[in-house]
Amino acid sequence: MKKQKKFKDALLEDLKDPQYAQTYLSVALEEYEQDKDVSAFLMALRDVVEAKGGITKLAEKTHLNRQSLYKSLSAEGDPKLNTVETVLNGLGYRLSVIPLNEQRTPN
Predict the structure, then answer these.
(1) How far lies 56's CA from each of 20, 77, 88, in Å?
(2) Which of 9, 30, 49, 85 is deepest in the core (most CB within 10 A)?
(3) pLDDT value, residue 69
(4) pTM score, two decimals?
């Protein structure tokens, strides 16, 4: 369990870097496109939220209800698109669309 804790601490430290967090979320979204496992994407989003100060700070910044954020970003969560957009905006990111045939390059 100690190694897992060290990994999580290191991940959260890395996710404080906006470029790293952007790449992390982009990869999680690409994986969702392949396997349709929304819980994995929500876990990645939760990790970034935690690294950037947590749910309470995000709730204050976005004016979303803290309990609703916990529920929306849980493994069983099913957030609406506008909630995902608001969360991403609160983290300093936005939704975007790119052509399927466009080559993706690491950020």
Answers:
(1) 22, 18, 15
(2) 49
(3) 96
(4) 0.86
